[in-house]
Amino acid sequence: MMTEDQNTADRPRIFLRPGGDKRVGRGNPWVYSNEVRMDGEAKAVPPGTIVQLVRIDGKPLGVGTFNPHTLICFRRFAGPKTDIDRAWITATFADALDLRRRFVDVPFYRLVHAEADGLPGLIVDRFGDVLVLQSGTAGMDLLLNDMVEALDGLLSPKAIVLRNDGKGRRLENLTEDVRLLKGEIEGAVEVHENGLTFMADPMAGQKTGWFCDQRDNRAFVARLAEGRCMLDVYSYGGGFGITAAAAGATEVRVVDSSESALDLARGAAERNGVVGRCTFAKANAFAELERLAEAGRRYGVVACDPPAFVKSKKDLKAGLKGYRKLAALGARCVEPGGILFMASCSHNVEPAQFQAEVAAGLGRVGRRGRIIRAAGAAPDHPVHPQLPETAYLKALVLALD
Ligand code: SAH
Predict the structure, then answer these.
(1) How many whole angstroms separate alpha carbon 267 and alpha carbon 201?
(2) Whose alpha carbon is nearest atom 26 of ligand 1?
(3) For ligand 1, what atom is nearest to the CA of residue 258?
(4) Domains observed in the chain
(5) Which atom of ligand 1 is nearest to 234's Cα?
(6) Is 344 in the pocket of ligand 1 (CB under 6 A)?
(7) Which of 168, 195, 303, 342 could form a disulfide with 240 if both were Cys (CB 3.0 to 4.6 A apart)?
(8) How far apart are CA 303 and CA 341, in angstroms?
(9) Looking at ligand 1, which residue's alpha carbon is closest to its atom 12?
């Protein structure tokens, strides 16, 4: 629960160094530790405390959470006079909900996308009457009970799952914590998307259990697969492959290195009546693409949607090489006139860099192509305009010659 002094005028004040208020003034919600006056008082503030950010002359700039031990030490929630209380939290969720309802017609979406939705550190995915929460900061951990109670009041879900096993938690010295906060769940739950039914595993699946971000890209690619054979590499629960099969792909090969991911994909194939046109292969993506290419297998559509190759800046060089190699191998398996879909969810890779690597990969195997769609995540994953990193997903659809 929130303590009273977190919401009174005497909450701790954190001073920006002289001249350090430009980015905050432009609406950037993050303040780095070298931008604040990190004196003994600031260092003694318990990680995650709600503080008032103030300019050196004492002018209040906004309330947010503070962790003196992290690089991004302050994350702004709201204006200087706002109380981060139940009413504010509920109103912020209601606003996020209203926005989703305008563009997703079933209750399966990312309800809260952290900073972009005004709730730094919090992810909430909604799979019908199951909510999956992920907190990435000490500040959000301290607010979690209030978040859960507000969501429960707003949506009365049957189950609420906490998936606090994201890698970002380590940067805040937070431990892993995965558990049910409400209700019961047995294994996978159904997800409805693009008129189809998929299986998500909120407790044990990847991330929150389902990747809503590719919803629109899946629909786009599926349409191009009608009447053609398709290869879905890094399939997870079969989002691309099963959507393509349902759209009339003649044959779909679904590839993932994880048996539990393939089980979800099989479940989706059964539920959508396309099992007969799907084959499932547990394999390493690079090895399988190489094998198929060597064997002369060619597909009308190849989708490659790997996990992040560049998890931190130090992996950049190796990760970019990985995207180049993947594009080359993927392109080798595309029949003449076919389609290559390539995605990167590494927030450390910029769109232009990703496109350059894909282009280089095509060049390496002597293929030419036209980009017919360059997209990001679906709109339930809004981007904070001041934080380019929140535009993490890059997706390219290429029509190859
Ligand atoms: N395309 C999916 C999301 C992919 S997530 C969708 O539309 O939902 C990345 C997937 O890659 C995970 O399922 C993971 O098990 C798989 N994976 C990770 N490393 C792999 C590898 N080396 N070879 C094949 N699959 C891999």
Answers:
(1) 11
(2) 257
(3) 15
(4) 4-78 (2.30.130.10), 86-182 (3.30.750.80), 189-400 (3.40.50.150)
(5) 11
(6) no
(7) 303
(8) 5
(9) 236
